[in-house]
Amino acid sequence: MDETDQRILAALRRDARASYSDLAGLLGLSRTTVRARVERLREAGQILGFTVVLKEDVRQDPVRALMMIGIEGRGTDRILRQLGGFPEIRGLHTTNGRWDVIAELGTQDLEALDGVLHRIRALGGVTTSETSLLLSTKRSAGAQKGR
User: Fold this and answer.
1) Alpha helix (H) ranges present in the chain?
2) How many domains does the chain have?
3) pTM higher than 0.70 for the full model?
4) What is the mean pLDDT of residues 91-114?
5) Taking 50 as the threshold, does the pLDDT of residue 145 lie above it?
6) Cβ count near 40 (within 10 Å)
7) Is the pLDDT of residue 81 over 80?
């Protein structure tokens, strides 16, 4: 992937709906060049899809948060199984560094979020946690295939 491909990807990140003609004008390239490069990036698996972030995607869970969780010893698999049963958890990710797991949470209000945080912290083996509220979504990573 060269600098031109990087510029095309950056432009698509800003506006995945931009036409090839618009991208060409913005980047100073021909429409044919932009189309060929986007297709090549898709075929190579660099571009997996295109997406739209809708208001209702955010409204579904008015209160959203990321909870970073530290786990004692080798209890990660057990904790992940337990967390899998929490209806407020929208995603679970293992990670490296300071935190063992990051949980994406969604609730209807702050009181419900407080309750789920309390329940997670009470799990045996959870040693520490830190939670950040998500204030707004500028871009979602959930891509849909196609264009």
Assistant:
1) 3-14, 20-27, 31-43, 55-59, 76-83, 110-121
2) 2
3) no
4) 94
5) no
6) 13
7) yes
- Return the higher-pLDDT residue of 102 and 13: 102
Q: Are residues 105 and 80 in the same domain?
A: yes
CB 103 within 8 A of CB 113: no
| Residue 146 counted as domain residue | no
Distances in whole angstroms, Cα of residue 56 to Cα of each of 62, 132, 135: 10, 21, 15
Q: Which two tokens stand for residue 139?
A: 């871009």
| Paired tokens of 110 | 């702050």
Q: What is the CATH number of the domain that holds 8?
A: 1.10.10.10
The number of residues in the chain equals: 147
Distance CA 40, CA 47 (A): 9
Tell me the C-alpha distance between 139 and 136, whole Å: 9
Do 38 and 61 lie in a common domain?
A: no
142 domain-assigned: no
Containing domain of residue 64, as a range? 55-134
